[in-house]
Structures are given as structure tokens and as C-alpha cells.
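Standup notes, structure subgroup. Blocker cleared on the flavin-adenine dinucleotide input:
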Amino acid sequence: MCLKRFDVTCQIISNKEICTNYFELKIKAGSIAKYCLPGQFFMIGVPGVFLRRPISVYDSKKSVLSFLYKVVGKGTVILSKMCSGQLQILGPLGKGYDLEICKDLNYVVVAGGTGIASLHFLATKLGKNKPYKKKGTLYYGARSKKDLLCLDKFKEIGWKVLVSTEDGSKGYEGYITDILEKKVKDSDVLFACGPMPMLKKVVQIAKEKKVKGFASLEEKMACGVGNCQGCAVNINGAIKMTCKDGPVFKIEEVNL
Ligand SMILES: Cc1cc2nc3c(=O)[nH]c(=O)nc-3n(C[C@H](O)[C@H](O)[C@H](O)COP(=O)(O)OP(=O)(O)OC[C@H]3O[C@@H](n4cnc5c(N)ncnc54)[C@H](O)[C@@H]3O)c2cc1C
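Run returned:
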């Protein structure tokens, strides 16, 4: 697990709207890019906003770090308007997904909304590393067709993709956990990231079916390094900080 952490100013390479309200930000991160693990995140400083915003690593190639984010409030609105210039970033932070447990097993990833970002990075790493099976299955749920991101990227690397939308505009009409519940097997390893109601259901399914895996939690956080204690969660009966002890936790230990 990477223990190196940087607090640096980086140049924006591009910051493009890939579909309504969703942006892909690329920054020149030099050698930092090679220290990032799937599931880790950066606290991104946005000019004029007091607290930095946590955003997961979406991709990391050579010296370029990519983030995929949704515009939701003050910080991301300002960020979305920055096409050039510099950003202060702190990271990589937190503990990422443990790839070791995937060896020789089938793996599935369950994403809701922008939870797809960290799982995309995970998928690219699994595909490139020898001890793991090359392809997995993506279960991806969103409100509507327009909220389903980077499906083409998963298809390009040969993954099986199952989607659901709440309004029925693409794939199964309803929640992705309805499909997961029917298809997931106890021999699978599961990685999940998404909104809390989805994660709750994923954790319940995994526990019932005795599937092991990891859930990445997106609690609101102010500092990102365990000082403010704003992102406390109950893990196996103990209080843990999402930023420092997570955001990725073993599914069997999560009580949501
Ligand atoms: C580990 C992690 C990874 C994430 N990865 C992604 C990602 O890849 N893509 C993506 O789109 N989103 C991601 N998010 C969610 C993203 O951080 C929020 O959508 C973003 O912070 C919203 O910022 P805003 O200013 O636009 O929204 P606003 O709602 O205006 O502000 C949210 C901010 O308010 C502050 N805040 C509010 N309440 C509290 C509180 N109780 N305690 C502490 N601080 C508080 C925090 O600074 C918080 O970041 C992630 C969140 C976490 C925790």
C-alpha cells in the first residue's frame, strides 16, 4: 500500500464536460501518478473555496492523473469552469482496494453514479496484472441513461456490462442490486462504490450470499487525513475514519 503523500500544485491539462454535468479533469502530476492505487483519492483545492474536495483517481497514466466528477455544489461548479491554470492537490490518500483476494477468482464490480470512477481505475489495473483474470463483470446503476459513464471503456477491455436505470431509459428498469442479487455467486469477489442506499443493499447481499469483497464509502469529509473526524463510520463495531482507515473497507466488516 502506498504511503507516499504529496501536497503540490499541478497544471491542468484539460477539464472537459463528457456529458451533461459530468467532467473529466486531467492534470500533469509528474511522478505522483505512479504512486496511486485504485480506490485512493485526492483532496482537490478549488480557488475561492475553503475546504478541499475529495475526488477518486479515475485513471493514472505516466505523468497524467485523471478524475471524473459530477457537478453538485459550489466547489464542483467552480472546478468545472477551470479549463486551464493550476490546482492544489493533496494525495494520494486513503486505503485502496485489495487486489490480492482476486487471484484465480471471478470478480464483479458494482457501481452507482460517480462510484464508477474508482472502479474504472481498478478494472484497468486488474486487466494489466498477470495473477488476475483479465475480465470481470460490471454491474452499473444510475438514475437515467445520461448518467451512465464510460461504459465504452469497460467494453473496450472486454468486460461483461450489465446496466440498470431507474427511469428505464437503458438496461433493466430499477436498481442494479436487483440484478446483482440474482446473479452474484459465493465464488465471486465483489468491489462496490456508489451512493449509500446502493452500498447498504450490496453489503446485505454480499453478507447473505457469503461473497467477500470491498466497499468504498463516500462520506463527507473536510480534511482527508483523519484530523477533523468528520467522516467517522462504524466498522466492525469500532469507529473508523473514512479518509484515513478507508475509504475502502472489507464488506464483511461494514455496518451501514
Ligand atoms: C473518498 C471520496 C471520493 C469521492 N470521489 C468522487 C469522484 O470520483 N467523483 C465525484 O463526482 N464525486 C466524488 N466524491 C464526492 C465529492 O467529494 C462531492 O461530490 C464533492 O465534495 C461536492 O463538492 P461541492 O462543493 O460541489 O458540493 P457541496 O455540497 O457544496 O460541498 C460539499 C463539501 O462540503 C463540505 N461538507 C459538507 N458537510 C460536511 C460535513 N458534515 N463534514 C465535513 N465537511 C462537510 C465538504 O468540504 C464537502 O466536500 C467523493 C467523495 C469521497 C469522500
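Discussed briefly. Residues 99-253 form a domain with the Rossmann fold fold (CATH 3.40.50.80).
Next: hand off to the docking folks.
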